[in-house]
Here is the input.
Amino acid sequence: MSIKILDCTLRDGGYCNNWAFGNDNIKKIINGLLLSGTNIIECGFLTNKITYDKNNSKFTSLDQIKEFMPHDKQDRIFVAMVNYGEYNINDLPVCSNETIDGIRVAFHKKDRYEALEFCKQIKNKGYKVFVQPMVSLNYTEQEFLEMINIVNEFEPYAFYIVDSFGNMKGEELQRLFSLVKANLLETINIGFHSHNNLQLAFSNAQLLTKLNKDNNIIIDSSIFGMGRGAGNLNTELISQYLNENFNTDYKIRPLLNIIDKILNVFYFKKPWGFSIPNYLSAIHNAHPNYANFLSDKNKLTVEDMDKLFDMMDDDKKVSYDKDYIEKLYSGYMNKYAIEINNLAQFKETIKDKNILLIAPGKSAFLAKEQIQSYASQNNTITISVNFDYPYVNNNYIFLSNLRRDQELDPSSYKRCIATSNIPEENVFIKCAYNSLLNNQDGVKDNAGLMAIKFLINLGINNVILAGFDGYSYNLNDNYAFANMQLATSNELVNALNNGISEVLKEYMTQINISFLTPTNLLKDENYSFMK
Here is the structure.
């Protein structure tokens, strides 16, 4: 009986940085894993769907991976992963000792027969084959047994139990392991790949070592748990556990050095780890990308996210479908009836007035005296966006965010211009959410842009903006008030700023836009700044 650790940092961790580890960092990570004694090192993805970049751990040929191979493999096994359907078997040369030793094949249940045939072809070329049926919990016992019988016929290096959504409980792991152990040939390693949505990756790995008495097993992990969403089992944790309980001799310091010198930088830009959205995706047995989509909106309460997962079709949960979740989200945000009885009154009220639209950027606090001064002019109408700006008597509040709705004093509703996702009935105007969207991914329903679109749709010619600062990597610089802060990543900050900037430039061709407070959104553009 043996227990091996397979590190998948360069492959699964790539979901956190788009696989852009950098050429030198890829070499340093591989070298650190060698020094640590990690048994199997996954170098990244092998795919025909990209143009190769030497700073990336997605490869189109084994020659590219060869550049990262050490001169002395030290009896370690080096592998790459193929998502079934993304690599042509004819492009795979016969195995040699100069590059990787094995191929991991991940596949969906619907593709299992074709994928297993693909695995056979890879083995025939001399590679160690790792068979990885994603979302193993979605197989019936009969389907899993049938797959094991096919696997026994061609004897790959390893057959895996895969917890793709991080929702496998201990008793479920025990059931699947017992099924595999009783039916899989003893010559085939049993692998376990887990995610950490329910914080069970480490405990499940420990359980597996206790369940196993005489089989050879492989446990997947990544340094610092680096991986999509909630991340993976930590290599440093399982290594230390095996050292303490199975007399192994993994070196932990090389792993800690990789965290300190390389992975911390990526974590700061786009954190991974436990989060409520990833918890929700797990308990609903849904692909984690759905959690990312809903979380990045920063407009839904946890209850709303839970309801959206409830609304999803079971057959759509397994694979991420962006068009599907966009449509579901849009429908949810339009679910309440619109109410425009006061629209004529509103248009008459703002006629020939200066409209000051106040967003909750940091400058709304820093320049409050300037905003107060401008708002005090008799011909100015103030509309604050998703909050009740406390330094002026706001005429109206534009409300489109369910989270911000819960923060408002109910007495404010009578001044609210709300979109149709807001449940309150006693608002001043309720307009169709879809009518205020733009076409820019990532900011389609940005509240400030929706408010401007609302004014454009009414035929308003001029608007003055305050607090439209743009987003900063420093969370403390993003909002006028600390209680409004929302967690975000550097990647999302860049996407938001770029997207808002593009839409603003488009809207400036339809309405005259001036800025009362400084903005970082239009750095290279000519815009009117009111001093």
Observations:
- The mean pLDDT is 94.
- Residues 343-529 form one domain.
- The first strand starts at residue 3 and ends at 7.
